[in-house]
Amino acid sequence: MAGSAASTPNPDSYWRASPPIKYTDTVNAGWSQISNATDLLVYNGVAENRTYAHHPELYYSVKTKTVYLIHSSAPIDEDSMGQDIWITVSHDDGQSWTPPHPILPAALLSNQTNTYNFTYWCDASIWQRALQALTVVEVNGVVYTIGQTTDFYCWGDIGSGSKAAGRIARAVTSSGTEADDPCWLSMNNWTEVHLFNETVYGTEYGMKFCQDKDAINALIAEPDEVPAWGDWLYNHDLHAADGVHYMQENTHAVWIVDDSSITGGYWQRFWRDITATNNTQSVWVETTISIRGADWYPHVREEYGNKIFQTNIPDAKTKQFLGVLSGSGDRYFVSNSRNNSELIRQPLTIALSRGADLSYTNIGVLRTGADPFPAPDTRDYKNVGFSYPTAVQVGNSLIVSYSEDKQNIWVTYVDISDLP
């Protein structure tokens, strides 16, 4: 990716969106809706009788002229037993999609075939092995869907939390069907502790590593490919420069041209503040002049000493997406920019940083007006709104996917010329 701008700005100057946020407007936050955008529902949680859906990830293959979309799906609750990964594809630049179906199966033991909710497994003090859609990549002419394990514990004196047991991938065809068995990109001590070898990944697929493991892992360590989640991020706290706030859900990085840099520019990416108390509800920024990102995560894995700084970009405590438009090099930022104590995740906005101005000045509403009454869960963990965006440019169109109420998966496509 390539941008066109100047030196690193002061963290307090990134956000100059006009007009300013109108907090009393809970629907549009005072901003205008983007015109001529088309919205498509690609996964309906109630219709599928699986009322949790989240973590969409998009990829466009130039070779097959196919847009791939994967997302997480679970019977009722987030990060619960039975959570697997689904796929749908588009062959007409996002204007229509195939019926979604599972591509990476749930990691269940032979005696865990019944559908229970999150609370059931917690009450039974049983680890919940969940798969979370991570990314889609293309290596050696093969497209791989990749899932992140995120296994939840919730019992006794140890409290609750997640541990990651590795990453699992599966090669797919351009029609979105399986091209090979699932395989592993990484494992750790939690892989054995959580008994993945006794799930379908061991009993049927043999716990094998992917043939292209090294190439895939090298690709997703590149600054513009690093996924938002990882084994190390789940198993450790990555603190920002202040040593207090800790981060997850990094965006992909974009390259900013800067003649004053010895490498001709620098990478820029944003982080989400996931600190439980005294959360800043702001986006945090990190930069590096290293072309390979050699001095930041994932090449450097340290809980402290990270050069991540708070910006003035508002955030509703949720994931963002950062990208760059081919041709112009303008940066676009998709997020829930109306921060609020109710944790409502709307509107979903897209802000533009154009040309040499690294501030985000132009903004428009991509989606708003989510169903205020999602299907119930036992964690009380659903957020009303449209969130967790992912995006890909195909020709003159920008395709954006996101979840509604952590229950439905949508796609919006819009012509680049209609962006604010």
From TrEMBL:
Alphabetical list of SUPFAM superfamilies matching this protein: Sialidases
Name of this chain's protein: Sialidase
Source species of the chain: Coniella lustricola
